[in-house]
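hey so u asked for the seq, here:
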Amino acid sequence: MKRSERTAGGRASAPQRCVLVVDDEVDILELIELTLLRMGLDVERAMNVKEATGKLAARHFDLCLTDMRLPDGTGIEIVEHITKNNMDLPVAVITAHGNTENAVAALKAGAFDYLAKPVGLDQLRTLVKSALSLPKANDAKVVEQAQGERGLLGESQAIQAVRAVIEKLARSEAPVHITGESGSGKELAARLIHQKSVRRDRPFVPVNCGAIPENLMESEFFGYKKGAFTGADADRDGFFQAANGGTLFLDEVADLPLPMQVKLLRAIQEKKARKVGSTQEDAVDVRIISATHQNLADCVESGKFRHDLYYRLNVIELRMPALRDMREDIPDIASAILDKLANQNKVTRPELEQDAMQALMQYDFPGNVRELENILERAMALCDGQRITMVDLQLTPPEAVDVTPAAEGGNGKWPLQEYLDRVEKEAILEALEKTRYNRTAAAKLLGITFRAMRYRMERLGIN
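ran it, structure tokens below
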């Protein structure tokens, strides 16, 4: 009988959790084993891929730690073996210091996380605790939570695929980059990944990278020490410190200026942050999820975004579908939005008339779910309180965009006033989107006064 199955008096007890450690260097094996034993864990050793796969087939493990370079293969082969055989087992890979390519390759293959040599014992213990706190894939509590989750509504193939990817990403520590059009639910997806992960009890800190003045970026991200600059009257934590142990969501990451991209890259690679005015770096344990509606690869090509940072952020990509690509889900989403708005405003929920629902099903929604919510909120204010008609929706007819003028060779620029109104409305909506609907900040971005901003929004019917 193993020592994990005995108590001090020799009576049988529940087996302890066991970790498989795979490395061909005896000194590293002994260091890791000693650390894990002190954490109350059992350890089994393997020194190559063949021995490791044999042990994985023979018994259940709760965690696997493997070196990247092994005599008969690589640690990625072990990751792929675990993934291919659907083992409910987190696996972490130990890479050479500074070998970013191997770390990224391991995460893409399905590794939970990675450690760099020389192995830091504090980082090792943190990783092991996180991996062992992962719920089992078939845990009834997780299933119940997933069934009760009403963040991503709909049953279309597109949204079901997104849900499946989110479940996988929640069981990893890999950086995630979320792409999709404005209003397609990128932040919601990031929150769901966080809520279903081992970091769910720690902070989720969303940051709109496009809304922070460039001269304040470093102090906002990393904090500052008292006296670091005029007005720094006390020490202050930044986004990295606030998200320590949790998730940092970088929205519109493509808007980061190049100097800040360099500092962000170092913080991600070293897992350390230096406050402005400090002489030392502090360790931070943060998972990075980023998002943008821009094509980040195009930004790299044009020189606006660093290739090495892109490589670190875009380890796994999650693409959010546009609402027009999941039209069959519009009735369910619209119904849920009306329920929410009615509860918020403490009014009776109005019903959508059939022609109104048909109009929504045929509309293209350039602003996606966020635009649908704005349309329904406006319609609730305009309707008789019981039913929402097609007139209440005030949808822009498709033919008003570019049909007749374009056919006549005007590229949709006639009549002139309608064309100018459309351009102005698009510019205002984009500015509002970039500033998270802060009208003062949007007015500043557009180079107009707040009063002019308010007047233009009223004239163009922007709620």
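The chain has four domains: 3-132, 156-319, 323-395, 411-463. Residues 27 and 33 are 10 Å apart (CA to CA).
lmk if thats what u needed
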